[in-house]
Amino acid sequence: MEKNIKILAIETSCDETAASVIENGNQVLSNVVQSQIESHKRFGGVVPEVASRHHVEMITRVIEEALKNANLTAKELDAVAVTYGPGLIGALLVGVNAAKAFAFAHDLPLIPVHHIAGHIYANQLEHKIKFPLISLIVSGGHTELIKMNNHLDFEVIGETLDDAVGEAYDKVARVIGLPYPGGPEIDRLSKEGKDTYDFPRALQDDSYNFSFSGLKSHVINKLHNEKQKNIEINKADVARSFQESVVDVLTTKTMRALKDENIETLIIAGGVAANSALRERFETLTKKNNIELYIPSLKYCTDNAAMIGAVAYEQFKRGDFADLNLNGQNYIEIEEVY
Ligand code: KG4
Ligand code: ZN
User: Fold this and answer.
1) Could you give the residue ranges of the DSSP H alpha helices within the chain?
2) Binding-site residues for substrate, please?
3) What fold, for 6-121+303-337?
4) From the CA of 140, how far away is ligand 1's center (Å)?
């Protein structure tokens, strides 16, 4: 019988300090996520220096808790995995250094993981991933359409030309006076509103690329103009109208990519995959077009280390290890890494 592979995974690319122990790439033995959201709320967004400091304070405790919850000692592990990019460089370095120290101290191989691969593989924690597939990654830092023919084989077929969709959510939320992070707030408020503002659907071209900065500016200008005319804005209607525009654009391009590429499996990943309207629209459209749709449960949509462990298992099988010179990188293309 094959040995069961247990990997300690660490994720600190943005504002969650997370560690997890994963067995054979899909069994979550522990999943500890220490969120810093409360701390960043008062600034209306993630402050990189504050994030790094919190990671430093929390990382040792979070790793210890992950081991304790999994009921394991370091001796029983087979490898250590860590997100080394993309993300906030100071934040990444905390995880990377903790992982290197742990690997060195316990003589374990070190596995370098790309954050976006983690978001896609979050699905592997709950369902077996089937290939070929298209994955739509929608988060605070990314908006990408990625085609996969096999494990660790990533082809970026579309991406945002400017803002990430989560970033646009957070910005629009801020201008209508909602707290950070704005995505879930807009999602909630939009249920009480109507699509009365009819915001533009950007970049209706032949590519699979996206653009959200124009929409964001359009919302801000509209609010500004209404204010000058002393017209009271309806926040719920703004939220709903913005969300409808985002969902229209994301679903239209993704469904077209599936059709053009003749692919029948769709994975949605990243923090914005938690969005209720996006989920509902994709559920309807995929059913109608006989596409199998996979979306992780909410706890695996936002940043966590279990998803990093899921990718790391595939890398472990290939012997894709890093040495102790591994460094954090704020920007790295997924296609260059695997
Ligand atoms: O994947 P994630 O946790 O971090 C990054 O890697 O960026 O994504 C965070 C983003 C934030 O912009 C947040 O506002 C957004 O995901 N988000 C949502 C929802 N829940 C989280 N956006 C829209 N609707 C939601 N329900
Ligand atoms: Zn993320």
Assistant:
1) 37-41, 48-70, 89-106, 115-121, 165-175, 182-190, 213-228, 235-261, 276-288, 298-301, 306-318, 334-337
2) 137-141, 170, 183, 187, 275
3) Nucleotidyltransferase; domain 5 (3.30.420)
4) 5
Q: How far is the CA of 222 from the centre of ligand 2 (A)?
A: 30
Q: Is 87 in the pocket of ligand 1 (CB under 6 A)?
A: no
CB of 169 closer than 6 angstroms to any ligand 1 atom: yes
Evaluated on CA atoms 278, 281, 284, 287, the torsion sign reads negative
As its CATH architecture, domain 130-295 has 2-Layer Sandwich (3.30)
In this chain, the answer to whether the domains covering 6-121+303-337 and 130-295 adopt an identical fold is: yes
- Domains of the chain by residue range: 6-121+303-337, 130-295
pLDDT of the chain, 338 residues: tens digit per residue: 468 999 999 999 998 999 999 999 999 999 999 987 777 787 777 888 888 999 999 999 999 999 999 999 999 999 999 999 999 999 999 999 999 999 999 999 999 999 999 999 999 999 999 999 999 999 998 999 999 999 999 999 999 999 999 999 999 999 999 998 899 999 999 999 999 998 999 888 899 999 999 999 999 999 999 999 999 999 999 999 999 999 999 999 999 999 999 999 999 999 999 999 999 999 999 999 999 999 999 999 999 999 999 999 999 999 999 999 999 999 999 999 99
- Contact (CB, 8 A) for 145 and 159: yes
Query: How far apart (Å, rounded) are the C-alpha atoms in residues 300 and 124?
Result: 10
* DSSP line for 112-127: EEEHHHHHHHGGGGTS
